[in-house]
Amino acid sequence: MEPAWEAAGWERLSPRVGRCRLPGWDCTAGLVVGEGAALMIDAGSGLAEGAVLRTRAREIVGGGRRVTHLALTHPHFDHVLGAAAFAGVEVYGAVGIDTVFARGAEELRADAVRHGVAPEAAAEAADLLVHPRHLVSGEWTLDLGGGVQVLLANVGPGHSGHDLVVLVPGGEEGPEIVFCGDLVEESGEPQAGADAVPARWPAALDRLLELGGQDARYVPGHGAVVDAAFVRAQRATLAARFGVS
User: Fold this and answer.
1) H-helix or E-strand containing 241?
2) Beta-ladder partners of 30
3) Number of neighbours of residue 239 by Cβ within 10 angstroms
4) Are 93 and 162 in contact (CB under 8 A)?
5) Whether 152 contacts 139, CB under 8 Å
6) Greatest CA separation found in the chain?
7) Which own/partner contact pairs does 6-12 have at CB distance under 8 Å and 24+ positions apart?
8) Digits of tens for pLDDT over the chain (245 positions)?
């Protein structure tokens, strides 16, 4: 692991890709750094957590530059309530996430409080909730400069009604890296809340595996980086749990 990434609180996954595991819910945030732009993947559970991520990212991006793009993998509080800390960025999410935010800011606030977020902090983050400007219905390629491209893919529904994954292509610097959101979880059993679509979840994982391939590194929404075999096993478990093929 390169000292620059480690010193800034990131786990280095490739020369231009890293992630960190946030305290509390072991939630993953990712960072992809290009020559002219940088992409943050998920924003944490509140404004304070988002600000920490912003500061850590700036140390890696360097040169006085900052995060320019933010991808939200799904509309759950621990992944989105920190988004307002990234002022001025281009925000991406799966089609329909904007409707969830427009109608469900109060539910996000309440869910955060139920999980232990201070009521005042949860209310402030919900009031400032950032609505994605760019809505992904299929696939969307972002060019971050310096030959660094990422693919945003709407593979859901599954864990939620609006699941977005981020693929960083591999090459000489290493294998493909797939940020899975909570379609994949390693540090606990996959959670199926009221907005989950169990009948479609295995198919979402099939698409995720198709995008990444056998040799990719899969970064779950919670927990350690896993391989394709882990994702296939979790797919089988979910299919059996929900009685779908």
Assistant:
1) helix 228-242
2) 19, 41
3) 17
4) yes
5) yes
6) 52
7) 7/59, 8/56, 8/59, 8/60, 9/56, 10/56, 10/60, 11/225
8) 456 899 999 999 999 999 999 998 999 999 999 998 999 999 999 999 999 999 999 999 988 889 999 999 999 999 999 999 998 999 999 999 999 999 989 999 999 999 999 999 999 999 999 999 999 999 999 999 999 999 999 999 999 999 999 999 998 878 999 999 999 999 999 999 999 999 999 999 999 999 999 999 999 999 999 999 999 999 999 999 999 98
Q: Which of 157, 172, 128, 166 is nearest to 28 (CA)?
A: 166
Residues 173-210 as b/e (b if ≥16 CB within 10 A, e otherwise) read ebbbbbbbbbbbbbeeebebeebbbbebbbbbbebbbe
Q: In Å, how far are 45, 126, 148 from 108, measured between CA atoms?
A: 10, 7, 33
pTM of the predicted model as reported, rounded to 2 decimal places: 0.96
Q: ∠52-114-182 over CA atoms, to 5°?
A: 60
Partner residues linked to 139 by β-bridges: 153
